[in-house]
Amino acid sequence: MLVLMWPLAANERPDYKTGSSAPNRPSKDLTTLPGIGEDLVILGGSSVNGDEIVNSGSIPATYNPFGVSRGTADTLGYLAASGGWFSYFYGYQNIGDAFMTMFKMPADGILKGVNVPMAYWGDGDQQITISLHKLSYPYATDGATYSADDVNGAGWLGGYDMNEDGWVTIEGTDYTAGGTAGVCNPASAPVIANAQDPLGTEDGVGPAGVPTKGLIWPNTFTSYTGTPESHPVGADVWAATSDYGSEPELMAGDWVGVLVRGTGAGGGEDPTLGFYYETAAGQADSWVSMKFYGECGGTSGNGGWHIRGWMFHMQLAVELTGDRGPQIVEVSPLPTTLSTGDREVSAHITDDNPSGEAAGVSTVTMSYQIDSLTATVNSVTMSLSDGTTEDGTWTGTMPGASTGQTVYWNLSAYDNNANATSTQVSSYFIFQATAGNGLVFNNQSRLYGGSDAYIRTRYFGNDSTYDLWDASYGGITGELTGNYDMILELAGHGGPVFVNDDEVSAWWDGSKTYIVTGDEWLGLRSGWANGPTAQGSVAREILGVAGEYNDVNYAVSGDDSGISRLMAVADDPITGALNTFMQTGHMTVDTVANDTTYSAVYLNYDPAYETSSTNWLDGVDANDGWTVAMTAYGGILDSNGAVPADAEEYNVMVYGQAGNGGKSAFLAFDPIALNTVPTYYWIGAYPYNGGLSPLMGAMAWVGGVASADEEISLPNEFALKGNYPNPFNPSTNIAYSINMNSKVNVKIYSLLGEEIASLFNGDVTPGTHEVRWNGVNNAGAAVASGMYIYRVEANNQALTGKMMLMK
Predict the structure, then answer these.
(1) Coil/strand/helix, residue 521
(2) pLDDT of 697-721, one tens digit each?
(3) Sequence ranges of the chain with CATH classification 2.60.40.10
(4) Which among 221, 473, 609, 702 could disulfide-bond with 513, CB atoms 3.0 to 4.6 Å apart, if both were Cys?
(5) What phi, psi does 448 have (nearest 5°)?
């Protein structure tokens, strides 16, 4: 399902379609993660001969350099942590957006071929131009590496020849100096200190239309270009470097970039192109992908090079000619567990030496620390259990830990020449199931990257009668589910990570309750095919979903609102109070006539605003005996907030009781992403009008909370609701409630009492309100990282709170 995603926010052009619709997305838990912690993954497998590398249409897992007597053939690439690549991360043709993936050479080597699979082509004149560059990245002009914090909005590296509109070019004469403030978005983080062109400072020689800085290929008169015909979507298209000049040679430790630039004129209705991508967090020591924004609209709000926290799917075929450290190909995972016993660890490790000297792994060590990265480092020596020192399996035993303890660990392998390779530090902890509690399975990205406590508070009121299992621990297992009678699965923010239907089916009986939220939960199972759900499936037999209609809002294109209109069913035990509130939630006070009138508010599903996520709302048919609690119109609202004239109405929330007595509820949306207009109320989150949350209502219906079905009135006091996210970067929302028409003043102060920014000064009506701070002061300059005080004044009262800005 390749669907163009239009902008989600006014100040940033989004680059990607998130979710689970990518090719090769796993349908079950991952049991291994190859290449954990390596900067560069060496993909092994069958070899191909040199002729096949030109437009082969298949990925050569290794590259055979025509029987050269000395050298090791490999394909260098990054592995998606999910097991498959997302589709797609896009840019624009007509403004020259460019993408680059960077590799650090593991040894001396010769670049033999390049592969750039395409995930999406728009229409109009579509073309890419591919080149290879020896990079200055990740080093700044002072020789230091860029900080890991220099990424996305804070990862602006600038470009050449900035004009009065703030536009920069990919090559030119004057490079934007580090510390330069943005013209497109003056409130953004400035150009990174000591920034330089990531392509380097020396010009190479090559064809017209290719940036020359650091250019090492093509180094002939012909550029290497691709079109929708030569690079069809979903296919691997390899080109031999020898066909476009000489084969570049690099040294161990050199950084090389695969640069892909949109060089078509664009036009048509869709002037974009897209690449496969995945998150890079935890996968590499340095950020490994960049995007050049041809105009304003990068993650900083400005144009030019931006270090991104993603990996783009591009590959290099190389012949390694020098020695390198051992390759830790695969490591058995150590996920969070309930067991306190010893755990066996195995690793597949290879070693070669293209220089001709002896090869082989000499030692493999597993190091670990308990509860802190500053704690005593313990080590376990692993032993060769299968194969040889050049290609074998090494095993060791991780000692058991106590309930509640966190274990930090990694592996280090040494070859006969003292070259070493280490995995990144991983962690797990010993989970404790609390007797009598329910289980919340956070099977999604963490909201705002927040803590367990933040997830608890926003979704279900920080109820201590629930244990929380996060997707970062792995999927749920029978060992885990056997401790609970109630499971709430949150799968709306970014889509579900794991499919655990087998585990749920084995657990389910007449004493159990199962609640699921999320607008991609069904599609991940069916392949986004509309129609009846499968007989015997969890969706049909447990959740009462007889049929599915995927992405009912996304049929409408050309509008960037991304908002759906939802309705609560009148007199329903779960959502009846919400329906009542919809009739009278907007209050108008006439101070002259001393008269107050009440009118309706409308309920919206708006994940772009509330959670920075995407709206792919689904519709469902309910099984006989299941109750529909909420419906929604298909299509997204237009720029005036109106429902499309031809919109169909779909069921989006059902609940009921199975024949065996078990209860369930299914919400085809992220419940924390609901709000109202014209008076703004955050309906989905607790404690913001918490009793109106459909999720809280469902939990009350199944007996999971004490009470949530009382009619909720307007706020009865002036109170702070906190700020979210906190810590934050680049912006945060300060929320407060007030019970009368008032003049409100919201300001930011330093810890020393100095006024930093005045955010709001005006009249408000009763209700819950928010004010956003983007981390800039009254002069429009970005402030430094640190702790700040926000102060809300109303009716001769003042309330304050603390928040942390982290860059």
Answers:
(1) helix
(2) 888 887 643 333 333 344 567 888 7
(3) 339-429
(4) 702
(5) 55, 20
